[in-house]
Design brief:
This protein is of the alpha+beta class. The chain has 2 domains: 1-72, Roll (Chitinase A, domain 3); 78-137, Recoverin, domain 1 (Orthogonal Bundle). Helix content is 31%, strand content 11%. The chain contains 5 helices and 4 strands; from the N terminus they run αββαβααβα. Strands 1-2 form a two-stranded antiparallel ribbon. Helix 3 packs across helix 4 (116-128). Residues 72-107, 116-149 form the EF-hand domain.
Length: 149
């Protein structure tokens, strides 16, 4: 939404819940430069709760005009895993992910509270280090599994 992002396009990862489910579905298989007008029912938007204290009322059907500017490989690609895995041991250490986060923060240039890095790093391990060994394996990183609609 250019109106919510100081006139700039909104970037997000498709299929991981960063936007409403209806947008995730509507944008599947779009190509850069493609435009779509989509109508999203309440069940795939904000449902009976609505959103933002009345900005979007309960049971609202949403209409979007979408233009896709670019597509980048998502963070769960084999290429991304290999880029983070600096020592090529097929598992991601806290140090490797910490370095990757520092590089990404520097690349996007957004100002963040100094504690954001540590909070995000802890959250990554909490959500992905399923066996608690202090590393995120390719399987835990979900390189080989894909959630299909």
């Amino acid at each position: 939404s250019r109106t919510q992002n100081e006139g700039h396009p909104k970037w997000f990862v498709l299929g991981v819940g960063q936007v409403i489910k209806g947008l995730d579905i509507a944008m599947m298989n779009m190509c850069p430069g493609e435009k779509r007008k989509v109508i999203i029912p309440p069940s795939l938007a904000y449902g009976q709760q609505g959103y933002a204290q009345g900005k979007i009322p309960p049971n609202a059907t949403l209409i979007f005009e979408i233009e896709l500017y670019a597509v980048n490989k998502g963070p769960r690609s084999v290429e991304a895993f290999n880029q983070i895995d600096k020592d090529n041991d097929k598992k991601l250490s806290e140090l490797e992910i910490s370095q990757y986060l520092k590089e990404e923060f520097a690349r996007d240039g957004k100002k963040r509270h100094p504690s954001a890095h540590d909070e995000i790093l802890a959250d990554i391990f909490k959500k992905n280090d399923h066996d608690g060994d202090g590393f995120i394996s390719a399987k835990e990183y979900n390189v080989y599994q894909h959630d299909e609609l």
